[in-house]
Each structure stands twice: as structure tokens, then as C-alpha cells.
Structures
1.
Amino acid sequence: MTQQTLGVCYYPEHWPESLWAEDARRMREAGILFVRIGEFAWSRLEPSRGDYRFDWLARAIDTLHAHGLKVVLGTPTATPPKWLCDEMPDMHAVTADGRPRRFGSRRHYDFSHEPYALECDRIVTEVARRFGDHPGVAAWQTDNEYGCHDTIESYSPAALAAFRRWLAARYGTVEALNAAWGNVFWSMELASFDEAELPNLTVTEANPSHRLDFQRFSSDQVVRFNARQCEIIRHYSPGRTILHNYMGSFTAFDHYKVSEDLDAASWDSYPLGFLEQFAPDDAMRERYLRVGDPDHQAFHHDLYRACGRGRWWVMEQQPGPVNWAPYNPAPAPGALRLWAFEAYAAGAEVVSWFRWRQAPFAQEQMHEALLLPNSEENEGYRVVTELSGELAHLSARVESARADVALVFDYESEWAWKIQPQGRDFSYLDLVLRFYRALRRAGVSVDVIPPTPEAVAGRRLVLLPGLFSPSAAFVDALQTSGAVVLAGPRSGSKTPDFQIPADLPPGHLRRLIDLKIRRVESLRPGIAIPVAGSNAGAAFDGWREFVVPGAAEVAAASTDGEPVLLRQGPAHYLAGRPNAVLADEVVRRLLDAAGLEALTLHPDIRVRDNGPLRYVFNHGPEPIDVSSVIGSSQLLIGSPTLPPCGVAAFRRG
Ligand code: GAL
């Protein structure tokens, strides 16, 4: 089992070579072990075609290695240099409104542009051949944040040609495509695959089946792009860990599929930037201004642990104010430490900080780092130094036991409900997060899982809200697992072709729970459908379904007499989008049915189990007494009264 450790992102090409050795020395002094470099350095590695200048990178790697650091080498393909863009001006992606992207920032390439992909093969081969067996190179990062700045879909001629080939491979005959998409509607029938278009610039919405296939295709292009790099790296650099750094609240490609070619997943965690961008309301933005949403990071830790099949890192951790959110507050004292321990508690092998020294130039000059631009220590440097001591003291190790409770997150469902929200603010990710938050408020450690039969084995409770089109095999696995199951709302409501199932929703799930959905309604914000008999305010908001129960029994109903929660044996169906009170009530009922313990916690407290260790976190602005969680256990770190941003850890009895 691996000892959990620290890393940092470093850009030797940004600094005079005379600083490198001192930087490396100070990294080690702070307890940092991994250092990621190189991912944007193409213009310095190959300033003009074929003119490879790898010596500076060799000296940088040698210097870092000589100081005992392990290098994570990035492939530079997210930033093709100007000369290359000028050679092939059609390599830039085209936006949905038909405008080509331009050189001048990053990610200015089209995943479907084969000549660019060949250029990537070439530069990755050269770099991997030169450095693949260097003893200081411990890991690789492919590219950088696939999809950042909205760069997955492209509406270019290259994408169109590739999409037509993809459709032909998927459907075989154009008749099959016409049937799957329902193209008889509005005279959309095609006579050959060469007539298929991209789903942009249509007068009103394009066919949802067409759009979903375009999303699947765009995702597959990323899988292909990443797989090519992995294959080259594996050939020249065997035995090294290959990672990619994913993002938060970003779902435009299937991260499970991309991860199949990687050895481990990683992601870039910016809690305050994400709070500004993604928090469900301003009350949360205010309460957690300097510490971040208590569940958003944790959800991504759990999601990317699933992607990495148990192995994952934080590749970039926020060290101070960032530059890219609408507002960029400073973290609370202690927040950096809290974030790092949250990641370790969820099983991270490495927490790596972005970045070593603040750049005084270019786009990210307002983004803080562990050091100030003049190399003086910033707060992050001090936090990291202390953390490395604490980690050693805890002898924190990576544990990967299966959690009893699993929550399904599925990328196709996210695409489907983005394409067809039916109510303006319906979001699959938000729906899944409502259940995730409720589980966390009950003190439960969760595995996020894909909807595959293997992921279900051994679980005691599985939740699959909003799961667009579960496969028959997945439903079989749920049935034989004996787990308590929660489906709905919208689970099983479409076929994989994006049509309503022949026997009505919830499709295959009727084998678990006998009911039918005859109508759905969406509701504007502020309108609630209260649950009968709830004094606490349990209600649906935004979405509800009208259910014909069949053999399923109604366990709760709305004040207007419609089924809210239905049950048949271990299977449950929730017929709407729950507010927080209802989500809490349903989750507690399910935990009870599964024979699992629900804790009663202060709303700012979160708990996470990692093997024998239980961690307790205070995300709130006041000290909180957590002695009821700790019981008679001996604390390894922290105190029974947890200060703001406090972390406690103890061995579970
Ligand atoms: C990430 C990216 C980094 C840097 C960072 C700033 O999205 O991977 O290169 O831009 O954000 O917060």
C-alpha cells in the first residue's frame, strides 16, 4: 500500500536555469515528492519543425531527480505552437455557431483533425523516446484537461467526415439510423450516411437522438486521442503511471472510457473557483466563501477514484486566490490543509499543488502559488511543509475498500438530460449531487460508480437517480445483488436510441419494481409539491412524475394524492426531484432498509472513512463539538472541538 504524499506543478521554462536547483532543494525541504513539468512547453521543445531542443528539459529533469524528486512529465499537445498552426490552419476546432478557434491561448485543436493527431504522435514519440527510461521520470500526464474552455465538440469539416464514418460503423445501414433517430418525423430521413450533418445551425432544436450520437462520437474522439498517446508512452516508458488531469463539474466526454487507457485518474481541484461557478445558491456561496462547497470536491474525489479503478491523484490543488472565477476570494486559514486531508481521506495517492511559483507574466499572473513571484514563501508553502510532517505522523496510506453505498453517475445520462431537460433548470449532475449531499449529511462514505454489473457486486445500497437508459445486464446485476435500490426520477425513461420505451418508463427497471410513468411535469423555481404528513417541508421541486403503481406499494404520497415514493421488496422509486429535506428523509429510510448506520451531524460536519481511519471535517465558520462522532476513540490528529477548517482522524474501533 502506498504512502500518501505531496506534489507540485512546475514550469522550468518560465524561470532562469540558475533557479532550478534551489527550487528543487526547497521542494524537497517542504516534503514534496512529485513534480509535474512540461505540459505546455512545445514551443520550447520544438521552436520550428524538426528542430528538437530537448537539452534544457533533460537538465531540468536531471536537476529535479538529483534532489530526490519524481517527475511527472506532461505531453505538450494542449498547446500546439504557432508554426504548426500556420502550417495547418484547419486544425482549429469550429464552434457550434460555425466560427473557427484561433491561436493565442491553449487547447486550439480539433480532436478529429488527423494531420494534427499525427503531429501529436510525433512529438509524444520524440519526448517519450528521449525521456521514457530516465530514472527520474515516474509518471506521465497526457495533454492537459481535455475539454477545458469548452473544447470537446467541434463542427469542422474534419469532425463531419469522422462523424459520418462513426455513424456508419454504429448503424451499418442508413435505414437503421433512420429508425433509431425516428427520422420520419419532420421529413428528416437520410438516403445515405454521406447525407448526415452535424447537429448545429438547425432552425430549431436538432433531433435529440442525433445530438446524443454526436456527443457520443465527440467523446469517442477524446478516447481515441488519449489512447494513442498512452500507447506510445507505454512503449517507450514501461512501468510508469500514466494519468490525465480531469476537471470539476465537467462532463462533455465519458471519463470512465478515457480512463480505461490510463493507470490512474487525476483531477484539478479548485474549491473556491468552483464554489463561485457551480454552487446551487448564493446562501452556499456566502457560507462557504473561503472553504468551498462541503460536497463538491468530495464528489469528484469519489467519481475519479471510480475512473481510476481505485487509483487517483489530485494533480492540481488550489493554493490561494485563482484568476479565472467571476470573483476570486482568498481561502480561510486552514482551508488548504482541509482540502488536502479531504483528498487523502478519499484515497488520493498524491495531492499536487498548482503551482510552485506565481508567474509575473501572461494570463495567470493573478493566480497564487506556493511561492510569490519573487520566490518568497507564500501561505501555501508553509501549509505544505506542515502537511508533510502530519502525513508522516499519520502514516496515511491509500486504502481501497468497497463502500457499502454506491451512487451511479453516468455520462450518457448527463448528455441526455442536457439535450432534453424538459424544464429549464433540470440538471442530471445536480440531481445526483442532491443524493450525494444527503448521503454525506448522514455521515456515509460513498463510492460513485458507472452503471455496470461489476460495479454493483457486494453493495448494500445502490442509488441510480436519473439514469437515462440502464442496460438489461445492469438491471440483472441489481436484481441478483440483493442490494436496496433507489431509482427515479427519470431513471429508465428512454431507450439507448433516445426514444420512450415500448412499455413506458421506467423500461427495464420494471423488472425490479412494477410501476409505470404516465405523465411528467416540470415546474418553475419556487413551486413545490409537498409530501403529505411532512412537517419539515419535504417536497419535490422542479420535476415530478405521475405513477401508475402496479404491484409496487406507495410508501409516501404528495398532498395532492400522487405517489411520491414507491417500494417493492428492496427496490424503491422516487417520483420527482427531492428538495434537501426529502432527500435526507429518503436516504435515511434507505440506509435503514439496508441495515446501515446514519449519523446525526452538524450541517457543516462531514465524515469520511479510509480503511481503518475515520476522518472528520469542519467546513463551517464556527468551532463544533464532534465528540459524539469520535466516541471513545483515540485521536491521531485534531481535537473533539473542531475549529473552523479543523480535521480530526482516528482509528475506527
Ligand atoms: C487548470 C489548468 C492549469 C491552470 C489552472 C489555473 O485548469 O490545468 O494549467 O490553468 O487551471 O487554475
2.
Amino acid sequence: MRFAVLVSGHGSNLFALLEAEARGALAPAEIAVVLSNRPDAPALDRAQKFAKPTVIVDHRDYAGRDDFEAAMLAALDPYRVEAVVLAGFMRILETRFVSAFPNRIINTHPALLPSFPGLDAPAQAIEYGVKQSGCSVHFVDLGVDTGPIIAQVAVPVLDDDDAGSLHERIKAREHELLPEVVQLLAAGRLQCVGRRVCHLPAPHVPAHNANENAKP
Ligand code: GRF
């Protein structure tokens, strides 16, 4: 399954995906292209180091979201993308883009949804005083961080944490979880039943039959 990874910033989650692909842990997912809405995103350098095609669609060049999304779809079209990962992509997606990839867009969010959606989730968690936060990988719908949750990992909030230190600890877990979910999606092992996402077992691969070449 051919994926586009959409980024806006640093790209540590993109790097985790690229490394997973390089060591064979992402198959049958394949990163076909990296799209950034920011021309100066450090994530673009990471993609280029892995020799991945990159495209820039700067949202500031478009009058509205619909035009921006049409431009993104046009830019992705040559790469025959079947699914999309939002890895620190800082734009809200609307109907045109979301409906182009039904149940094929996933996002990673640095909190245990439905707590602390939207911007600055680690700061929200610190401010609220929770003792556990974490990361959530979810399908993207038309709300902000409201789509069906695929997987979550909890991360403790320490007494001396600030938003930055908590976010770094959460990111370390995102870097493990996001490639796992991408692989599951590509392998057809995620099944949505309403809002619940079931993880299907890996298909049984029969052990190599030592006698298969034996003559009858
Ligand atoms: C991640 O924490 C992700 O959950 C959030 O934005 C951050 C992106 O970090 N949506 P990076 O650009 O992948 O380093």
C-alpha cells in the first residue's frame, strides 16, 4: 500500500517511519512521497536523506482550504497514493481531502484522546495536572482529533515535567506506535466496527514443509 506522509515541522515521526521502512518493518506499506505545507520544514531534509520524493504545497498560496486541498490531491496524484499518514501536519483537513481516502488517513496525536485534542496537547496535560498522558494514533474524520482510535500508549507525567520534556517522552513512544499502525493498516489488519477499531490477527503462514520436494 502506497502512503503519502504529510508533515509541517521537525519530522521525527517521519524519520521513525523511514527507518522502519529501511529495516523492512513497514511492509507491505511503502512511503511513496512526503508532502509538506511548509517549504522550510526540517522534515523535508529527512525525506531527502532517504531519497524519498518530496512535494511542497504551501497553504499560504491558496485562498481557502478547499483550493489548498485540491492542490495537495493534484500534487499527490502522480505518486498513486492509497493512504495518508499525518505526522506532525499542522493543518485541519476538510471534506475534499478526507473523502479522497476513506478510512485511509491516520494521525498521531500526543495525548490520550479524547483528552486534550487540538494544539499543545502536552501543555494541556501539564496544565490539567493528569498523571498519565500518552499518544493516540487514530483515523482522521472531519473533526479535530475525533476519529476512531486505533492504538494508544500511556506515558507517565513526572512531577518535574514541563510541556517540552513530556512531549519528548511521548514522542519516543509515538516513534514505535506509528510505524506499527501503518504496517497494520497496509496489511489489512484494521477493521472498523462503528468507532471501535479491531486489530485482526496476522494471517497464518504455514511453516516451510521440509518434505515438499520429496518424491512421493
Ligand atoms: C508529534 O508529537 C505529533 O503527535 C503531533 O506533532 C508532533 C510532530 O512531531 N501531531 P514531529 O514533527 O514528527 O517531530
